[in-house]
Amino acid sequence: MTLGVERVARMNADGTTRFSELISGLYELSQFSLASKFYVASAKQGERDALEEGVIVTSDSPALEVRLKAASATVNGVVVDSQGRPDPLVRVLLIPDVSSGTRYRVGMLRTDTIDQNGHFELDGLVPGRYLAFAATDMNVEYADFHDVTWIDPEFLSRFRNRGVSVTVEDNKSVHLDLELLK
After folding, report:
1. Sign of the alpha-carbon dihedral angle for 34, 168, 112, 161
2. What pTM did the predictor assign?
């Protein structure tokens, strides 16, 4: 779990962790590095929704409770070019489909690179509605191999209306064949 930009903590065997030497203030929960079949179901600090409102750190702030769920969704599929060939430089991107009412949450910006046969697989997905894209000129930054932390706004403005809509549910796998965007 990352709190702010530089704070990382490992979970203890009893499911707890402790951050120390934090400066008082408001922190955003921006990334969770989890095993592939898990997603963050909720994060509460007292009555606050810490996923939506952030985490308040003071000398007497309430504990942060993060609940994980082991029922994540998977999207897999194939990407080929107009001649039916895979391109090893293709990235697949999933973003929340905010036009459908899905709100952005931690863990909903995901990416994968296709293999030599054009296959991709993204697991550990938060249930919801997404837009999927496949492109070679996609400029994204990611914290680990799949979790996206930044997407080039120019890419989104060029291709947002060409994203393929996909809905994922707990413990479900969705197969999605994508067309390479040019």
Report:
1. negative
2. 0.80
Other residues' Cβ atoms within 10 Å of the Cβ of residue 56: 16
Please report, as a single letter, which amino acid is at residue 96: P
One domain for residues 108 and 135: yes
Instruction: Say if residue 65 is in the same domain as residue 80.
Output: no
Q: Indicate which CATH number applies to the domain containing 119.
A: 2.60.40.10
pLDDT at residue 106 in the model: 78
Give Cα separations from 73 to 65, 123, 138, 168 (angstroms).
Answer: 23, 6, 24, 6
Q: How far is CA 168 from the centre of its chain?
A: 13
* Domain with 79 in it: 73-179
CA 26 to mean position of chain CA atoms: 22
Torsion angle of C-alpha atoms 180, 105, 29, 69, degrees rounded to 10: -100
* Weakly modelled stretches of the chain, pLDDT under 70: 1-9, 20, 30-33, 35, 144-145
